[in-house]
Amino acid sequence: MAKATFAAGCFWGVEDAFMNVKGVNSTTVGYTGGTKQNPSYEDVCTGRTGHAEAVEVDYDPAQVSYEQLVGIFWESHDPTTLNRQGPDVGTQYRSAIFYHDAAQEASARASKSLLEKSGVFKRPIVTEIAPAPEFFRAEEYHQQYFQKKGVKACHMPQ
Fold it and tell me: What is the pTM (predicted TM-score) of this model?
């Protein structure tokens, strides 16, 4: 088993992008990259803790590669918007890959470089690539939120 950690906006949607991938054993939404120990959702929403809403992905590398997971990460959000995904604004919604070892770091950086050179995006990619800091599991009502609520989107049309 291995672990990958991604932040790409609202963690409900990020979790949904990974949870049904063959080889992904489990997903956990939470907070990482900030300064407060054991932050609550309310703490993180203030934007003052420095945490990102993130997803920890436990996976079997024999069934799905880290590179495949990084590919899903790039496809699941807009990595060119700084501290924003759709209507969600703040550092807690930043785009980030938090690597767990040197191989993950090299893979993430190579993938970002290839994507930048591809010209797929018209604006620069602002995704942070950093060592995985302590991860704090979010409150239970956030785990597998879409399945619990029977929805498939972070934001409902008005």
Answer: 0.92
